[in-house]
Amino acid sequence: MRELNVEALARVEGDGGITVTLEGKKVKSVTLDVHEGPRLIEQLVKGMTPADDLTVIPRICAICTLSHRYAAIRGLEKALGVVPPEKAQLTRDLMMLGENVESNSLHTFMLALPDFLGYPSAIAMLADYGEDVKRALRLKKFGNHVMAVTSGRIVHGENPIIGGFGKYPTKKALDEIKAKSKELIPDAIRDVELFASLKYPTYSEAKMVFMSVNAPNKLYGFAGDTILISNGKEASAEDYKTLTNERVVTHSFAKRSLYQDKTFTVGANARMINMAKRLDGQAADMFEKYYDETWLANPLKNNLAQAIEMLWSLEHIPEACRKVASLDDPPIAKPTKENGSGTGAVEAPRGTLYHHYEIKNGLIELADIITPTAQNLDDIEKHMKLCAERMLAEDKKDEEVRLGLEMVARAYDPCISCATHLVTLKRI
Amino acid sequence: MTTQLPKVGIYGFTGCAGDQLMILNCEDQLVDLLGAVDMRSFVMAKSDNPEGPLDIAFIEGSISTEEQVNRIKEIRERSKVLIAIGTCACHGGPQAMKLEEGGYEDRFKAVYGDAKITISKPFEAQPVDAFVKVDMYIPGCPIDKGEFLGAVTKLVAGRHPYQYKFPVCMECRWKENPCILYAGRFCGGPLTKAGCGAVCPSHNLPCVGCWGPTDDLNISSEYALLKEKGYKPEEILTKIKKFGGANVAKLVKDIEKKGAKK
Predict the structure, then answer these.
(1) Contact B118 A250 (CB under 8 A)
(2) Strand order in the sheet with B136-138
(3) CA proximity to A228, closest of A248, A213, A216
(4) ipTM, 2 decimals?
(5) Which residues have C-beta within 8 Å of that of residue A337, sequence separation ≥ 6?
(6) For residue B65, what are the β-bridge partners?
(7) If you count Cβ atoms within 10 Å of the first and of the last residue's Cβ in chain B, which end, N or C, has fewer?
(8) Out of A403-417, B3-17, B155-169, which region has the weakest mean confidence (pLDDT)?
(9) Residue A75 near residue A344 (C-beta atoms within 8 A)
C-alpha cells in the first residue's frame, strides 16, 4: 500500500470529456477524462500560515468557493484549537444557505434543464421559457447576494476567517435578505414543480450508496463532524481517508474514490436520502410528494433533489438572519496552539468536501483536500456505462447515446458540467 | 441594421472558472450582453460552440499543459483582439506562485506518485502572454462585474476600455477606510492593482493581492512604504506573490535592483 497526497484538481468545469469505447455493440469502457491542467494547490500551501492558506484554497473552485473556505476553516480551527463564537457559526450557516441557492439554481437551470427540454443552453431557452430562465436568474442573484453580504464578495470573498469574520453583516443587510428570501419562496416552489414534471430517463439506473455529512442536532444542514452512509453506518470525518480511498487513474488529472471497493454518490440526493426525516417546511412536503424509490437508483434525480434543497435553503434564510442579527459582534477567536491536525467536512452543493490539515509551529505542514467531484467520478462512470449499454441494446443513435451520457454526468453537477461537452464514441 | 455583431468567444484554461462564472453572475445584464454580441463559444454556458474567426476572445486561466499551448495559439490566430481575464490569465494566478523557484516535478510526484498520466504533458502554470500576444488585461480574482461589463461596452462601441493605473490604496482612500498598514498589520494594497473597490480593507482585512501587481508609475515609493513599516523583501514577496505569481516576484526584484527608497 502506498499513500498518496491528493490535489483537489477534480474541478472539471474547464476541460474534460467522456470516452466510450465499443467493440461491436459491446461497451468496452466509458471514461470521464479530466484534461484540466493540474495546479497542485495542496503542495503550494505547504509552509504557509493558516491565514494565507485560507486565501489560496478557495481558488480551487469558484462555484463552491465558500464550501472550500468553510471546510478549510473547520479543519484549521480544529488543528489550532479555535472555538468559533456563536455568531460566527450562525453567519457561516447563513453563507452556506446562500451558496446552496446560488449553485443549485445555476446547475438545475443553466446546466441541467436545457438537456431535458432539448435546447443547447439556457440562453437558447429564453424565447420559449423566458419566465423560467428569469426566475432562475432571480434566485441565483439572490444566492449570490447572500454570499456577498456574508463573505464580502460574490466569488472568493475573504471575509470569513479563522475565529470569525472580518466584519459581520449589518442588521439592515440581514433584514433585506430576510424579506427577499420570503418573497422568492413561490419561485422556488415553481422550480420544484417544473423539475418534478420532467421525464427522467431510466437507462442509468442501478442501486446507489449515498454519503453525506451528519449535520449536528439532528437537523438538515451543510456541515458536520461525522459522515452518514446510506447503509446505516456512521463514521468520523477524521476517517475521511478510509471513506474515500483516493487513487490515480491514467486517463485523467482528477483522482478517484471508492468506499469499501464500491462506488458511492455524494450530492443533494445523498443529503436528502440520508437526512430525509430532518427536512421541514414546504421542502419536506415537496420531498414527501415527489420522492420515490427511483431516487435510490437514478442519478438524474439529483436535479430534483437540488430543486427541493434550494427551497429548503430559502425557507431557512429568514431564521438564520434573525439569529445572526440577534447577537452582538464578538471578537475574533484566537488559536490556542501552534501544532495539531484537523479535518473539516462540509457539504458543497455538489457533495461532501474534506479539508485535512496538519500544522507544525503555526505553519501548514500538510494539506489534503478531497473534492465531491473526485468522489463521484467512479460512480458517474459506472452509471454512464450502464446507460451506454442499455441505450445501445435498444439501437439508439450515437447522438442520443451522447446526450444520454452527458445528462448522467451533468446530473452529478460536476464542478462544472461542461466537463462533459465532448463525448466521443469510439467504435473499434 | 446591417452592422454585424462582434463575434466573441469565452475560453477557460487552468483556473477556477471564477471569471467565466462572474460573467454568468451578471444576472441583470446577461440577456442584454448576449444580445449585443454574437456569442460563438462559451463552453461553460452552452453546448453549441461553433469555432471560427473571432473579433474578441476572452481568455480565463493560466496555461499548464502542452495541449493548452496548442489551443491558445490556435485561438490567437483566429482572434482580432485577445483579452486576458482574471489574475490567472494575466499573471498565472496561485498555481504560478512558485514559477521562479522550480520544484514542479517534485510537487507533481507528491500528488500523483509514479503514475504515468497519459492525457497531456503538464507543466508549471504560466500566464497567457508567456505563449501568445495579449492585447488587453482585465485582472481580478475573480474579475469585477463592473470592470468587465464596462470593458465590453466600450469594445462593442469601438472604444478602448479604461484601465486602472493605480493601486488598491487609492480605492481605500476613496472609501475612507482606516489604513490596515498604519494599524500595524501587513497589507498588500500598495503593490496591488485597483479594481476590486478595496473589498478586503473595507471588511477590516488586509488586501491579499488578488488583482496582481499594479502598474502604477509610483510603484517604488509604494514598495518603500512597506519597507518603512518594517517588512522585509522576502516577507513582502511571500505575502503577495500568491496571486501575482512570477510578475510580482519580478516587480519586487526590479525595484530592489534599482534601489528602493529607504
Answers:
(1) yes
(2) B38-42, B7-12, B54-60, B79-85, B136-138
(3) A213
(4) 0.91
(5) A80, A81
(6) B122
(7) N
(8) A403-417
(9) yes
pLDDT tens, residue by residue, A180-209: 999 999 999 999 999 999 999 999 999 999
Locate the domains of chain A by residue range.
16-27+64-333+356-420
**Contact criterion met (CB < 8 Å) for A39 and B95:** yes
Residues B58/B10, Cβ–Cβ less than 8 Å: yes
> What's the pLDDT at A35?
66
Give the Cα separation of A94 and A152 in Å (integer): 13
Q: For residue range B44-81, what is the model confidence (pLDDT) as tens digits? A: 888 788 889 999 999 999 999 898 999 999 999 999 99
B7-156 has which CATH code?
A: 3.40.50.700
Q: What is the pLDDT of residue B214?
A: 87
What's the residue count for chain B? Answer: 262
Task: Give the whole-angstrom CA distance, residue B262 versus residue A127.
Answer: 63
Sign, CA dihedral A130-A132-A133-A139, equals positive
User: What are the chain A neighbours of B58 within 8 Å (beta carbons)?
Assistant: none
How confident is the model over B229-245, as pLDDT tens digits?
888 888 888 877 888 87
Confidence class for position A387, pLDDT limits 50, 70, 90: very high
Separation of alpha carbons B83 and B128, rounded Å:
10
CA distance A56 to B248: 16
Q: Residue A48: exposed, middle, or buried by beta-carbon count in 10 A (0-12, 13-18, 19+)?
A: buried
- Does pTM top 0.90 for this prediction? yes
Structurally, what CATH architecture does the domain formed by A16-27+64-333+356-420 represent? Answer: Orthogonal Bundle (1.10)
Q: Please tell me which of the candidates A120, A126, A165 has its beta carbon nearest to residue B47.
A: A120
> In this complex, do A43 and B107 lie within 8 Å of one another by their Cβ atoms?
yes
Q: Domain extents for chain B?
A: 7-156, 168-258
Question: Which positions ≥6 away from A101 have C-beta within 8 Å?
Answer: A139, A140, A142, A143, A146, A310, A313, A314, A317
